[in-house]
What does this fold into?
Amino acid sequence: MNADLERIIGLQRLDTAAETARKKLADEPEREKTLDTRLETAKANVATAKERLAANQSARREIEKELAVHQGRLSKFREQAMAVKTNQEYHAIQHEIAHAQAQIKTHEDHMLDGMLEADDLTAAVKKAEADLAAEVKAVEADRKALTAEHAELQVALERITAERSAIVAALDKHLLAVFEQVAKKRHGVAVAEAKDGICTICHVRLRPQVFNTVRRNEDIVQCDSCQRILYFAAAPAARSTGSDASPQAAS
Ligand SMILES: [Zn+2]
It folds into this structure.
């Protein structure tokens, strides 16, 4: 393979890797924010569960107070019932007693419902707290991984910069200018593999003699359509079939 073509392919590989690394670095604040949100959500779930339990407890205290009031009335009416003089008074007090008993029954039923609900709400608080503890651990691990990845990306970028400088120093200056011009126009991708007679990036079919030249990897050929510098990746499988037996240096 043409040495400059090999350098150009290497340069593209480095630029693509650098671009990927820079994108990952740029995504870090967003990923940090996602981790913060996960913790906040888990904490909010605990707070909500505790609020529900507290609301249940105060509701039950209210029921208890009212229950005491109705029980007080009931015993008062029962005392009064002992002292009634007339039939009319007797019926009136019996009516009050029945009413107080009905109220007590209603409040006791509410109390029972509230207690059953309290069991569920207590379990929900425990579950939310366990979820929070698990999330704290998971987020901590993800933060560590993010920090480690950040360091790796920095190291990779430094290595890429050094390798790039070495390639640039050895590369034909005119070719470097072509590479950079195309890269600028084509979102950082100035090199394309030619395969089955087409440019694999812009998908335009190459003229047969152009593709044949590209196949040899000896000349710098640009795609007519996208201007990217073309190369041919020899298939790893045997290519003994075919009449064109031009000698090719195995990479
Ligand atoms: Zn093309």
